[in-house]
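Standup notes
- DV: blocked on the single-chain target, sequence here:
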Amino acid sequence: MRVVFPVLAILIALALLIPGVTQPVLTLEGKIDKSKLAKTGIEMIADEGDRNTRSVLMMASSMLGLDKLEGEIDAYKKTRSIWGTVNELANNKNYLVAALVAVFSIVIPTLKLLMQLLYCFLPANRFKHLLGQLIQGLSKWSMVDVFVIALIVAYLAGNADGQMGELIKMHAELGDGFWYFTGYCLFAIAASSSIKIDKPLSSA
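- DV (later): unblocked, structure below
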């Protein structure tokens, strides 16, 4: 039966979309080297004084062993899902961006999959043709959800870079949500490719 594969692909895509939206997409961590932090703090204090102040501070730092500190300090950590990013954007009063991310990464994908599922079970009639046209129209936005992921990654990375400067070493790690969302994209593409939109019924 030709509807079995597209229906199965749609159901899997829907199942993957939920954790893809709610699970963490990206985690950014920032660590500071202890010796570098001590050195930077001393230099900042020394900038407020004269040359003698700097010499005294450097000497004190050496005596206390601050320049030989080992290890790192966790200074920054942020984990965000797509839904979490929408909430953060809304809380920061970026309502338009939050709405666009929600629409293109949650509403449209869900709506399209549900319409495709309905299309697979409808008999050939005018309503099915109109639904097919609507699905084809939504398919033009098929790469937007991937673009949304790229925007979230860029947003988080840019936000961290703007706050941390050069003192902190940043590390990014993709979360489970990224892989769920990638799986959703692949199964959604497979479903769209396997559904053949019927031509309009010819009038008698």
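- Follow-up: The radius of gyration is 26 Å.
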